[in-house]
Amino acid sequence: MENSVFLERASCAKIKPYGEFAMREKINKLARGIIEEGIPSLHFSVEKIMAVIPYRESRTFEIFLQSVNGVAMRGLVYAKGPYLTLHKSAFGGVRTKVSFTIDTKNLGDEEEIKGELCFVYNGGEKRIPYSFVVEKQPSAKQIHEIKDFSHLQQMAEEDRKGCSRIFDYSDFLEAPIFQDITALRLYELLKPCGDRTLALEEFLTYFSHRPKNAKKREVLPYQRREEREEVLHFPEDASLEEKITECIHRGDWSLSAFALYKKGVEENVKITKLYENLLYAMPMGYAEELPKGVYLYFSYEYRLEEGIKLPLYYNILKNFQEGSEIFSHFARPMQDYAISCLLQGEINEELALLYSKLILPEMIDERMAEFLPKILNSYLVELEDQNIERLVLTHPALRRECSFPVKGGFCTVPMPLPNMILLFQDALGNRYSRVPHRKTRLMEEAELEKKCQSLSEDKGIFLIRKTLSLVEKGISDSKDLELMEKAFSYEDFTLYFRMKILHLILSYHKKAEGVEFPKENLEFLHALPFAALKKEEKEDVLSALIYRGDYDKALEYLIAYPYLSLDKRALEAFLEGALSEGQGEKVYGEEEREMLLYLSEKAFLSKLEKDSILHFLLEEYNGTTEEMLQMMRVADQRKQQKAKIPSSSFLNMGERLLAQSLFTEKRKESEEIFALYTRYGGADPLLLRAFFTAYSASVFLGQKPEKEWIMQQIFEEVRGESHKERVPVLYLLALSLSFSKRAELKEEELEELSAFLPILLEKSLIFSYTKELGKFVSLPNEILEKSVLEYHGREEEKPFLSIRNQGEEEFHREELQECYHGIYTASFLLFPGESMEYRFTVGKEDTLLYQSTLKKEESEKAYIGEDAYAKLCRMCELMTEKKAEPLLEMMEEYGKKEIALSKLLEE
């Protein structure tokens, strides 16, 4: 037994000395036929534990245990679950406590933790259920009820201030409406605004749910440059040349000044910088042909001022066809200028014309392909409100926001993606989602865009577009998977969008279960920032690793984050793979085996009764007797159905479980466990003898119904020992009691009874049933003549016996002898037909325990022989039968013998 398997196996609860040594000690005692004098009667301070725990906090709880009868307790406590941590798993003594901590840091509002604490001790098992609920945050209920924008609109209309406060809560993002990444990104764009109420109203306005009580914004319309009347003041006698000179001196580039400059050019006025100022003052998008002298003048300029290039080139392109003299002269500098602006990412209405006319598909290289798609998808936004100073542009999937200044009511913005978010910002930093405006696309150049895509298909805008498309339709093959893995690492995507990409990637791994996938291609999953992921995301990564066969990494994560759970399919796949590896060359450490045990038990409770899981549980699991027995039952059924579960596994758990059931006094369960254990060849001598002792005690001391097949094994154990005095007395007592109830015995049983009965008689172990053995073997007359009273109680509480014979008025006490472990006996000599009242009491107050009458039946032929008692019994019989003559003769004869005996004694 010192090397017995059940003492060597590691337990989920990490058996400490109290548990292991106490079990070992009790089994050794039972094997020697020694039963403990007392079993602790435990009182637990609670029968169940229920509590509400603050959000993301931990709480410690204590359970106090006390032995009511003063018998020392020794045992273990089991707790299964990632949120509960036992401070110690073993307990002992007369009074003690078990404490544990519940940690809710990985739980959400109103999540519930349910489970049981299982106490296994020397005298029984106790289950204490627990239920803990995470306290809801003050705002959580309102936030979780915001399932659509109409509900938020209603809240804003009913309580604008209260709704604004909720809008500002840090956990507002947990509202169901933020499952939409557009809402999420818009919230991030609006929240920095100083006016929270305005931010809330604009948030709802974007989704067409503007509150009825929203503030009305005043619009200050633009006065367009062409609509303003500009009056230039000059002396009445000033000439055209003087007026132009004055305007140039003042740096006047107004429409009125432009008209003067143009007239001066047409009249060939010779003034320095006249042509340059003409172009500076020329309105944007001016398409009328200028005087030819202007074009000729600038054709001779070696270097044009930067500010006049664009209006000049634009005007040329508007008025001269390709191949004309003016066009040909400016073609090369115009193209160079267009490329330079393109590479700088510049775009407006005039540049759009330059790009469309001067940039050809064959000119585009990879560098240009990076900028051109945005330019090709640029729009001119015209505003009516001069309070708007900037336009803010982004996409729900993109992390960065771009801000563009509004000049003169116009702003050019690139919008190369669908569903982009456009906000309007004033001088105070407030942002608006709906402002009247007109939007005009500046370019439509499909060939240029196609060329850019061929050069930069998996970069920039085209990567974003393809990613958005795959997010909508899903990943269909390994090529899509590769692209999405690349997109996940794209820094411009928001964290929320990247998580959406990750979800698709992991879903593909789940869907493609069983498809060959080289482990070296799992680098993406390994490189994920696992610690930064949310619980649901971590669980998806785990499932992906499992379906791709990377059980080691999955197990590593499960140990580091034990609160993660797997669905039934993933759990089955993981255990099948991990346990098959563990049965091969791979050796798991203690932490790994404990996690596999936890998951295997979880799988078993989910009805995943796979051979590998059952095999592992039989080898490793320790829990309550009921749990372990159920595992053995299921495994036995599977074994009968030809399951591949080694018989050695049944022996392994059978030894541990049988020892535990004996330790915890689970007598009924121990019989079934013993049957399973022996069926698979269990034969540990120490454990078998311990069970025989416990079973004999239940039959003899507990007066439990016996099972013939077990009694037969006890008989064989006794029969196999030639020195009967070495056999535990309990075996002999149980067998003698069993024999006394039979009508006949086999020859070998008679032989054994004759061999061990003298040992019992020598030890004065005589009970009420002992005389029944007289029908099989001869017994002393002293046993046959007397009637035995028995009381089965407790050793620590001796009862009192009081009797009252026929004709007596009062009860008087008689001495009781403790014959064996709480069995108290007293012998009385009664004649056939004679009766005696008796009662058992306890304590100083003589509390009545039991009361009855003892009567010697006339049918009892216990008066065979010639001794005085036998003759007196026969005389009583003759008296009852009213046979006077034989009675008189026997009385005379008895009298003569008594007189003769008296004389002899006197001499």
Automatic annotation (TrEMBL):
DUF5717 domain sequence ranges: 23-206, 235-575, 594-904
Signal peptide: none
Highest taxon listed in the record's lineage: Bacteria
The name this protein goes by in its record: DUF5717 domain-containing protein
Species of the source: Oribacterium sinus F0268
